[in-house]
Design goal:
This protein is of the alpha+beta class. It has helices at about 20-35, 35-40, 60-70, 100-105, 115-120, 165, 185; strands at about 1-5, 10, 50-55, 55-60, 80-85, 90-95, 110, 125, 130-135, 145-150, 155-160, 175-180. The strands form three sheets. The protein has a six-stranded mixed β-sheet.
């Protein structure tokens, strides 16, 4: 988007996603929340939308988006919840900042035991010995929200095995491949929000 300011053309801060960007983004997000993407856009309290700014996708209210669109691109760092970013090769990578959205709308969840929470937060995968419970009928390679036994969201990942297979494997087998966790806020604080 561009707008004219005092006869000179300036790029505005945020723009809607193109069709290709929307398709890539929704495919990635649907691995974790499925058809609940519809619930993100059709909220009853206030309309929300997705916007792109500096290769990052933000989820924000329409009211906030209108305010942010008046800012010059160079001065705006971000607005709303950052869901992730597009890489230089055109792929989309979800960030840990999307955890609140994923945890709230995830179709499949894995709860880890208190003894394994710290291991997961240090960036390790979830092993069978650390799983407290798991959503029934979770298929292999399905996106899941990883929660503590007290239902506190810790991160998200992809299942290494289906639920019925997990019952038969040994305790040292990986059950969830870690994609992002809350520990990233500390480990990657220098690069996460640049």
């Amino acid at each position: 988007y561009q707008r004219r300011v005092h006869g000179e053309c300036k790029q505005t801060a945020m723009r809607p996603l193109t069709e290709d960007e929307t398709k890539i983004f929704f495919e990635k997000l649907s691995k974790f929340i499925g058809r609940n993407i519809k619930l993100l856009l059709e909220r009853t309290d206030e309309p929300h939308c997705f916007r792109l700014h500096k290769n990052r996708v933000y989820y924000l209210s329409v009211r906030l988006m209108k305010r942010a669109s008046a800012m010059p691109r160079a001065k705006l760092r971000g607005a709303g919840t950052c869901c992730g970013k597009f890489t230089k090769s055109g792929k989309f990578r979800l960030h840990v900042t999307a955890l609140d959205i994923i945890a709230q709308y995830a179709q499949h969840k894995v709860w880890v035991k208190p003894s394994s929470e710290l291991q997961f937060l240090y960036g390790n995968h979830v092993f069978k010995a650390g799983v407290g419970r798991m959503t029934d009928n979770t298929p292999q390679y399905q996106g899941v929200a990883v929660l503590s036994m007290a239902d506190v969201p810790l991160g998200f990942g992809v299942t290494a095995r289906a639920t019925h297979e997990c019952r038969k494997v040994d305790p040292t087998s990986i059950v969830v491949y870690r994609h992002a966790d809350l520990g990233e806020y500390l480990r990657d604080e220098d690069t996460q929000f640049v």
